[in-house]
C-alpha cells in the first residue's frame, strides 16, 4: 500500500525526501488551509501548527511505502506528530494526506518568524545536511 505525504519544510527538497525514504521521489505543489508554518528557534527547519484563516504551501509526495513512512516517522522525531490533513493540489482538488504537525507541548520552541523554503535552499540546506545528513541517510534501506 502506498501513502501520500504533504511536506512543508526541509522535506520539500526532493533530494532530502528521497534520501529519507530511500528511493527517488518527485513531488507536486500543494497547499493546506488552517495551518501556519513557523521557524523553530535556532534551527533551519520549521514547524506547522493549526491556525484558522492561514495556509501553508508545500510539496505533496505520492507513492510513499509503509517502510518509507516508518523512516519518515523516525526522521521527524518527537517534535512532530503524523496526522491526516486535507491538501489542495491543482487540478485534482482536495485529497487526504499525512503531514507531520508540530506537537503542542513544543510550541514554545517556535519563533514568530515564518519559515521560507527559498531561504532554506540558499542558506539553510548546507547547515541542515551537516547537522542531520547522517541521521536521514542512516534511515535509508
Summarize the topology:
Layout (H helix, E strand, L loop, with lengths): L1 E6 L6 H8 L6 E13 L5 E20 H11 L3 E10 L3 E10 L7 E5 L2 H22 L3
GO molecular function: transferase activity
Keywords: Membrane, Transferase, Transmembrane, Transmembrane helix
Pfam families: GGACT (PF06094)
Determine Rg (CA atoms, Å): 14 Å
* Euclidean distance between termini CA atoms: 18 Å
The protein's oligomeric status is: single chain
Instruction: Record the strand order, biggest sheet.
Output: 4-5-1-3-2-6
InterPro entries: AIG2-like, AIG2-like_dom, GGCT-like, GGCT-like_sf
Keywords: Membrane, Transferase, Transmembrane, Transmembrane helix
Pfam family, one: GGACT
Transmembrane segments: 6-26
Amino acid at each position: 500500500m502506498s501513502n501520500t505525504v504533504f511536506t512543508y519544510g526541509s522535506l520539500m527538497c526532493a533530494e532530502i525526501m528521497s534520501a529519507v525514504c530511500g528511493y527517488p521521489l518527485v513531488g507536486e505543489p500543494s497547499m493546506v488551509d488552517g495551518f501556519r508554518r513557523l521557524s523553530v528557534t535556532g534551527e533551519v527547519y520549521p514547524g506547522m501548527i493549526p491556525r484558522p484563516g492561514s495556509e501553508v504551501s508545500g510539496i505533496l509526495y505520492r507513492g510513499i511505502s509503509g517502510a518509507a513512512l516508518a523512516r519518515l516517522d523516525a526522521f521527524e522525531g518527537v517534535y512532530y506528530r503524523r496526522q491526516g490533513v486535507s491538501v489542495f493540489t491543482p487540478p485534482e482538488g482536495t485529497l487526504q494526506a499525512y503531514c507531520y504537525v508540530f506537537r503542542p507541548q513544543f510550541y514554545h520552541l517556535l519563533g514568530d518568524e515564518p519559515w521560507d523554503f527559498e531561504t532554506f535552499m540558499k542558506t539553510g540546506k548546507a547547515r541542515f545536511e551537516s547537522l542531520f545528513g547522517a541521521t536521514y541517510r542512516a534511515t535509508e534501506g
